[in-house]
Structure formats: C-alpha cells, structure tokens
Design a protein that fits this description.
With 342 residues, the protein is α/β, with parallel strands linked by helices. Helices cover 40% and strands 17% of the residues. It is built from eleven helices and 14 strands. α1 (11-22) packs parallel to α2 (39-48) and α5 (93-113) packs parallel to α6 (147-165). It is globular and about 55 Å long. Bound molecules: nicotinamide-adenine-dinucleotide (NAD) and uridine-5'-diphosphate-4-deoxy-4-fluoro-alpha-D-galactose. Uridine-5'-diphosphate-4-deoxy-4-fluoro-alpha-D-galactose (UFG) is lined by residues 84, 86, 124-126, 176-178, 197-199, 202, 214-217, 228, 230, 268, 291, 294.
Length: 342
C-alpha cells in the first residue's frame, strides 16, 4: 500500500511517516517546506531504517501534484499540508484561504482524475468553537472563530459535498485536540520557525533559556485554577491514530469523523508543573490578560475512535513533557544544522 502524505515533513506529518514505515506502508511525501525542514524526513529514514520518496512540491502548483500521481500508484492520501497559525490567519486571511482551500481543491481534483478516492484529513478541535458542554463529541455543533478554523470547517464541508456527489469517496475527518511531545528518540519534534504561538513549544523554549519567561494568558477563567484547560495529546499517539484510521478507510465507510484526544484536560499551570518536573528547569512565568479568541476549556470524548478504530491515546502528561524536553535539549535549534548538538 502506497500512501501520499501531504505536509509530511512537518511536525505531525513526520511522526506519522515514521509510524507508516514501521507498519510497512510505502510512503511518498509532498511538502513545500514552507514550515518544515527536509532533515525531518532524513531522520525518519534513519530511525526506521526504511526509505520514502520526497517531492519538494507545492499544492498550489497542480502540475506538481499530477507528476506525483503519474509516477506513483497511490492508494490513499493523508492530507496534513496547510498553514496553521491562528493569529496570522486573522491578519492575513487571504493567504490562509488560498493556501489551505485552493491547495486542497487542487489535491482533490488530481485525486479524482487519477481515481484515488481515499483521504484522511487533518481537522481540528477548533471546529467546535466554544463548546456548550464537555467533553466534546463528534456530533456537537460546529463553528469557526477565525480564518484558520474556517478553512478547516470549509474543507470538512467540501469533502462531505464531494462524498454526496460520488459515493466512491472514503473520507476520514480527524479532529485533533492539542498535539504536543516528540518521538522518544529525540530526533524528530516540533520546530516552530518563529516565536512559538502554542503553549508547550513556548514552555520548552523558556526551559532551554532561549526565551525569558512565559506569559500565562489569563487566570480568571471558570476552571479549577483559573487558567485555560486543553486536551493535550502526545504526537506519537496522534500519529498512531492515523495508522488505525487507514484500515477503516479501506472498508469503504464513506465519511467518518473522529476526535483524536485523550479525554483528559490539563490547565496551563499543570502543564508548567509537569514540564518543570520532567526537565528539572525552572519555568518563570507571569499572568497577563486573556488572549483574544481563547476559550476556557476544551477536551474530547474520544470513545468513538476507541470503538470504531480500536485506538486510544496511551501516553501520559509525564511522557509528553519528557519527550518534548528530550527533543528540545538534543536540538536546541531544532533542525537548523549548524547548531545541532547530536
Ligand atoms: P506543520 O506546519 O508542522 O506541518 C504542515 C506542513 O505542510 C509543513 O511541513 C508545511 O511546509 C506544509 N505545507 C503547508 N502548505 C503547503 C503547500 N501549499 N504545499 C505543500 N506543503 C505545504 O503543522 P502540523 O502541526 O504538523 O499540522 C499538520 C496539520 O494538522 C495541519 O493541517 C494543521 O492545521 C493540523 N492541525 C494541527 C494542530 C496543531 O496544534 N499542531 C491541531 C489541529 C490540527
Ligand atoms: N497559553 C498561554 N501562554 C502561551 C500560549 C498559550 O497561557 O504563550 C494558553 C492558552 O491561553 C490556552 C493554552 O495555553 O489556554 C493552550 O494554548 P495553545 O496556543 O497551545 O493551543 P490552543 O488550544 O489555543 O490552539 C490549538 C492550536 C489551534 C487549534 C486548537 C484546537 O494552536 O490551531 O488548538 O485544536 F485550532
């Protein structure tokens, strides 16, 4: 079985490529490296001792997608490629709509032309907006609060319309909660290009000393300690969720939707403490105003994925913090070659 992984050089994509190779899938990666390094894939090959094919290609260039499908007999696509910075999507919405929507349309058109109609799409818990109750189930109402989230919602709707028009499509919409952590080897992990927007990469930069302190966005939420609560999921558990989804896709299920989360919520302060314990480093922080657009709390009901896919997240908060720290400390400058320690 040959799987095309768009965005495969990125954070979640590289971890998924690794698990695909471990399961003996053949892997073809399409990535324009706009937010990643090819070195992630070199390391995936080193860890697994297996090879994969990499195309430095852009989903906005349809001819490049056609070339990949002409040269490979693809059985299914896992579609990670997209821009994901919520704040940037608010200030440059057209960039997000163009890249995420047009890129996806190009991909779907080529898949249709080559009669490859199996796709797993990276959606997000952001499509639930501010949920009326917790935990969040897949049939909760959907909404978007920013252009990034709107691209996820729009792509989900495009895929559902596509299925309505042609029942030969098999589509898995995977709604990720908050991916964190890194492969236990410490060789691949999350490597934001700029100052991180997300909590765990930020904490990790503070621990290593490249950022002075963390700003905690609000301690006046209606939560156990007043700080925001999220369902953090180890990226390896998340990658394994994709591995469990593929066989389901090949049973011709039509459109299926799954939450990929742990079902457990942790507060910002609990994350800081967890990271402190695993790293042995102090994490200086100050409480600042709430970040506009943030919700108080969000965690998944992951039972549907357990029942249908026999998948559940197994890694603990300690694993998430330990593996993030292991990656950070071995790669203080991420994939940037000149400063690598290992
Ligand atoms: P990432 O930025 O590390 O990976 C995305 C990859 O897509 C990058 O390697 C980038 O170079 C590539 N890419 C972007 N636009 C492209 C284009 N036009 N053509 C080719 N390649 C392109 O992000 P990630 O955290 O690995 O996220 C993967 C997917 O999961 C994204 O769709 C993201 O929206 C979704 N998601 C992520 C999170 C999260 O918190 N990390 C949460 C929910 C959903
Ligand atoms: N937080 C801080 N300080 C920071 C960063 C975050 O206090 O410097 C807090 C936030 O207020 C929130 C929690 O830490 O309470 C988690 O914030 P993240 O930015 O790590 O994650 P979000 O839940 O805000 O957003 C993430 C992804 C989105 C995705 C969403 C739902 O970044 O792309 O999960 O899946 F849409």
């Amino acid at each position: 079985m040959k799987i095309l992984v768009t965005g495969g050089a990125g954070y979640i994509g590289s971890h998924t490529c690794l698990e695909l190779l471990n399961e003996n899938y053949e892997v073809v990666v399409l990535d324009n490296l706009s937010n990643s390094f090819e070195d992630s894939l070199t390391r995936v090959k080193n860890i697994t001792g297996k090879s994969l094919d990499f195309y430095h290609a852009d989903l906005l260039d349809k001819e490049q997608i056609v070339k990949i499908f002409s040269e490979n007999k693809i059985d299914a696509v896992i579609h990670f490629a997209g821009l994901k910075a919520v704040g940037e999507s608010v200030s440059i919405p057209l960039k997000y709509f163009h890249n995420n929507i047009t890129g996806t349309l190009n991909l779907l058109e080529v898949m249709n032309d080559f009669n490859v109609k199996n796709i797993v799409f990276s959606s997000s818990a952001t499509v639930y907006g501010d949920p009326a109750s917790l935990p969040i189930k897949e049939d909760f109402p959907l909404s978007a609060t920013n252009p990034y989230g709107r691209t996820k919602l729009m792509i989900e709707e495009i895929l559902e319309d596509l299925f309505r028009s042609d029942q030969n499509w098999n589509i898995a919409l995977l709604r990720y909660f908050n991916p964190v952590g890194a492969h236990e080897s410490g060789l691949i992990g999350e490597d934001p290009f700029d100052i991180p927007n997300n909590l765990v990469p930020f904490i990790s930069k503070v621990a290593i000393g490249s950022l002075p302190e963390l700003s905690v966005f609000g301690n006046d939420y209606n939560t156990s300690d007043g700080t925001g609560i999220r369902d953090y999921i180890h990226v390896v558990d998340l990658a394994l969720g994709h591995i469990k989804t593929l066989p389901k896709l090949f049973t011709n299920p039509g459109v299926v939707i799954y939450n990929l989360g742990t079902g457990i919520g942790y507060s910002v302060l609990e994350m800081i403490n967890g990271f402190k314990e695993q790293s042995g480093k102090d994490i200086p922080y100050k409480i600042v105003d709430r970040r506009p657009g943030d919700i108080a709390a969000c965690w998944a009901d992951p039972k549907k994925a357990k029942k249908d896919l026999n998948w559940e997240a197994n890694k603990t908060l300690a694993d998430m913090c330990k593996d993030t720290w292991n990656w950070q400390k071995k790669n203080p400058n991420g994939y940037r070659e000149s400063n690598r320690e290992n």
